[in-house]
Amino acid sequence: MSRHCQVTGATPGFGRNVPWSKKKTNRRFNVNVQTKRYWVPSLGRRVRLTVSAKGIKVIDARGIDAVVADLIARGRKL
Q: Which residues form a coiled coil (predicted)?
């Protein structure tokens, strides 16, 4: 599963580990991604979304119908 939120579009960030010796190594800041199933009344079925923690909050605030309508308008397959 790729670390990508379908609602917010969040992707992993990249940076460096810097220990006491200052020998820098690359690291990856992953997005907190969850696979959630939502009932969408306008479609009359359940949809499975890969959403970040912030994406879940967006769905709670705006409603699943509005979020799914935006995803369909962007051309995302559900």
A: none
Domain 13-74 homologous superfamily, CATH: Ribosomal protein L28/L24 (2.30.170.40)
The burial of 68, by beta-carbon neighbours within 10 Å (0-12 exposed, 13-18 middle, 19 or more buried), is given as buried
Query: Each residue of 18-51: pLDDT tens digit?
Result: 999 999 999 999 999 999 999 999 999 999 999 9
pTM of the model: 0.85
DSSP H or E segment with residue 14: strand 13-17
**Which residue is associated with the tokens 């969850």?**
34
